[in-house]
Design a protein that fits this description.
2 domains; alpha/beta; seven-stranded mixed beta sheet; Rossmann fold; 242 residues; N-terminal domain of TfIIb; four-stranded antiparallel beta sheet
Length: 242
């Protein structure tokens, strides 16, 4: 089975902005989401965006005056971010999110891990490692904001078939297959080329993380955390370092 990085680079990265409703619409929605958090970051604050994709949150953060370190494993998505960002103060890094501290030269005011990136960690124990790394990377009273899908309670029967998006050129559907600690996501992409449709199928694993598990890890590492309803059916956790 492909890794998360392999699956994204081969299947999802080329259509990721389309999946999100178009890059500009998604970036605008990311800006609205960030504004609602009301974190009151200082001008020129250093922030980190883990799993930044094409910049749904990194670009609004930079537009608001932050200096952004944006990390992703996908070269395709980072190139798209660079094109969309223009001369905004965004440093892009292609690396695994667990290695982010190697690229951070100063304490951060905030770290963001949005859009279900958290469930891409390879093992449940990586959650505690990541949380501790973020705690070490943050300045006093720094913020850690996460959003992810709660796969801890399995969907049943035909609920496991999820239409992601479709138009006259593409149809993307995913099917979920639950294991004890993970969920296998099968992505089925139909794309029209001329008069024919081409189909590609690929699968990868995500972690089944419950909000209580995430909040417990945060509190153990010295954060005060609250759970909120996120966008697009996700859970959002907003945590602040004591």
């Amino acid at each position: 089975m492909p890794s998360v990085a392999e699956h994204y680079e081969r299947v999802l990265s080329p259509v990721y902005a389309w999946m999100a409703g178009g890059a500009e619409a998604a970036i605008n929605a990311g800006g609205v989401e960030l504004e609602a958090l009301n974190l009151e970051l200082a001008p020129r604050a250093r922030v980190v965006d883990l799993g930044c994709g094409f910049g749904m949150h990194a670009i609004p953060l930079a537009r608001a005056g932050a200096r952004v370190l944006a990390m992703d494993t996908s070269a395709h998505l980072l190139a798209e971010l660079a094109r969309l960002a223009g001369d905004l103060d965004i440093e892009t890094v292609q690396d695994d999110l667990l290695s982010f501290r190697a690229h951070l030269k100063e304490k951060a005011a905030a770290v963001f891990c949005m859009g279900d990136t958290l469930t891409h960690l390879p093992e449940h124990t990586n959650l505690d490692f990541l949380v501790q790394e973020v705690a070490e990377a943050l300045a006093p009273a720094g913020w850690f904001v996460l959003s992810f899908r709660d796969y801890s309670q399995p969907l049943l029967d035909d609920q496991r078939f999820i239409p992601v998006r479709s138009d006259e050129r593409r149809i993307l559907t995913c099917f979920l297959e639950y294991e004890e600690d993970t969920v296998v996501v099968h992505d089925i992409l139909h794309e029209r080329g001329g008069d024919a449709w081409e189909t590609s199928v690929s699968s990868y694993r995500k972690l089944r993380l419950s909000p209580d598990r995430v909040i417990g890890s945060l509190e153990t590492s010295g954060f005060e955390a609250r759970r909120e309803a996120g966008v697009r059916g996700m859970v959002r956790v907003v945590a602040r370092l004591h």
